[in-house]
């Protein structure tokens, strides 16, 4: 069997069986039975498949029939003999060589039969054996190729089985694999509560992460590695994996163990961080033509105030463009605080409920579908300031992948106690919109002059540190750094529709506005109620037949009503309503004597409905003076004249140009122009806020660099001061607003602050 004319099939089978027998003779009887069972199955498959390859044709005779007869007459008996040999109770007794000769005899007989038959009739082209190089190679017979492939497959499977059986318990690779699986299974069975990092582990990781810095100081890397090994070897927690590769050095093992330890602790705490430990987050990169705009405001519906309504419409109209995606970020209040702020006892159990309310309210007033996202950040309501103060870092609720352009509605308010990432560091372009005349409100309080002086400088400080551009709705606000004056607010489209309907009714001769005068606003003294009561009480005799209906809710409701009753004024008080409510459509005159507003939304809505508006000659009303129905006054005597004039006359219908100037489409165009947002959106390669702030700064690079240094210093100082709880409380902050509390974590599904900012996650 070792001669050159031995067929490759027989030679391969002999090599396989010889090698297998040398290994199997030292194995258990069970392994031998497994091999015999597998051999039986393979031989049965050969017997079953051989007739199928050459079925007897029903009509034709000749070669195919002769092939089948050859298989039946010469090959099948030999295979059956092999099967009987394997079916015996054990291998034939005797030495290994005899057994091998007996087993191989069947295979040799098959070989001889195939060769003899092929040489006898010459009807099949059989491939020449390896030793005969003289004859040309021909196409193999189908049955021979099938037998050869079957034997090779049998050899491969049996060899794999024998190798696993023979080397079980002795293979180093398999042993390591089993240990790794065991360690992983053990890890899964262990409690999810992983011991916290101890001090040596924290120091080891700190030294390791500080490698580049230490390298700059001249400390060699090998010394750092030794220090890490020394610190980590003193840890109190046992190693998690004892089966690290033995080929690695001790230093490499400890390094891998430290990585696994840190990862395991972070995983079990639920801590997630988009950026690395030490790297600053990469700024938003423009990967496509769509930009991201985040609009952050200080109030939300159902609180009917300007900072909840106007940013909502701004988000809807900015989202109409295909150039940008928009996210509106609004405060979330816990349920007890919702009861203090929201009218008509409206409360929400979850942010999803409030988002549904906001979208339904907006959908009723828009003629299109507003496609923008709404996100919530935790807030606290301040009774003293009658406003919502953010809790924690508001900027973290905008993902870094969406941190492109930020619009801060009331940037002073948002950043008074902001202790988090700098807006201009996280966003490419930051725009502030100043809504409120804070100085006017503060002057009305005790020690108001001193407080107003401090707040004025704080507002300048935070807006310069955190904004690239500031838009002031009117000159009523304080002059802020990098600011321009422009009305970027519009009115609800529903009010314009109401005005068009009234104009059409007047053309038909109908009297659309049959009621008298009214005032609508949040019922707090600073919203114009003090001025209104003073004017009516001073000229009570001049306005004998004049009656005023007042709609509003607020913290000063009882005090305002009590004062009006005490002075016996002709004022009827009603609960607050939406200005678009049907009960308010029939009024002809809207009276608004407030001088604390920056740009009164209710005044714009009344003008859009085609009503008279009586307001003070004040910078906050500068935008409305161009409308013929806006009647302004400077003195109390002029106020009386304007009241009588409006009650006796009829308002003029608005022209198409005037209606458009009040719309949100026009307001959005003004916003894009004055904030330079149109340039930012159209220039994808620009770095807005860096080199393109103001034309004068572009021409003076040194001035730009100095300005950036000053801004950075102001932001750093503000961050340090707002991190001290004593200083926060001394300046009027709500206790515990540096981070959000447990209830807010539950409402917004947030991780606790100690998990968000662990000691090992610097």
TrEMBL record:
The protein's Enzyme Commission number: 2.4.1.241
Family of this protein: Belongs to the glycosyltransferase group 1 family. Glycosyltransferase 4 subfamily.
Top EC category: transferase
Catalyzed reactions per annotation: a 1,2-diacyl-3-O-(beta-D-galactosyl)-sn-glycerol + UDP-alpha-D-galactose = a 1,2-diacyl-3-O-[alpha-D-galactosyl-(1->6)-beta-D-galactosyl]-sn-glycerol + UDP + H(+)
Species whose genome carries this gene: Eleusine coracana subsp. coracana
Organism lineage string: Eukaryota, Viridiplantae, Streptophyta, Embryophyta, Tracheophyta
Stored InterPro entries: DGDG1/2, Glyco_trans_1
Entry keyword Nucleotide-binding: no
Protein name: Digalactosyldiacylglycerol synthase 1, chloroplastic
One Pfam family from the record: Glycos_transf_1
GO terms classed as biological process: galactolipid biosynthetic process
Gene that encodes the chain: ga20389
CDD domains in UniProt: Glycosyltransferase_GTB-type (cd01635)
Subcellular location: Plastid, Chloroplast outer membrane
Residue intervals of the Glycosyl transferase family domain: 517-647
Entry's Gene Ontology cellular component terms: chloroplast outer membrane
Entry superkingdom: Eukaryota
Coiled coil regions, renumbered to chain: none
